[in-house]
Amino acid sequence: SLLMQTNDVLPLQLVFNAQGFVFGGPINVRVLIDNEHVGELLFDAGRISRQATIAVPNSAVKDGEIRVDFLIDQPRSPKSLGMAEDSRELGLGINWLRLERSAAQQ
How far apart are CA 7 and CA 66, in angstroms? Predict the structure, then answer.
């Protein structure tokens, strides 16, 4: 989980740029905010990296904090793919991430 603090006025959105570890096949990533499914991202050989904007439910902001989870279906290690000795299961790399005020009403 990623715990983020905010003093911003609602509504909020999560904006980030990420890349998927797509060696060995596509990677599907589910995004949860305060345990609520708010989005899904697919990374594959044709789309290794991408920018995403996801609305933060107003109910998810509690005491100026939100919790974000990225659930990766079928992470894989470079070792399991015969690429290197690295046995860490990989799936998603976040290049940058920010929480900002959204112009949309929820």
Answer: 11
DSSP letter, residue 90? B
pTM over 0.85: yes
Question: What is d(CA 58, CA 66) in angstroms, rounded to the nearest whole number?
Answer: 10
Structure confidence at residue 105 (pLDDT): 60
Burial tier of 43 (Cβ tally within 10 Å: 0-12, 13-18, 19+): buried
Which pair of structure tokens corresponds to residue 56?
A: 């933060």
Nearest partner of 55 among 106, 90, 98, judged by Cα = 106
- DSSP-assigned states of every residue in 1-51: -EEEE--PPSSEEEEEEEEE--TTS-EEEEEEETTEEEEEEEEBTTBSEEE
Amino acid at 72: I
Neighbours of 69 (CB within 10 A): 14
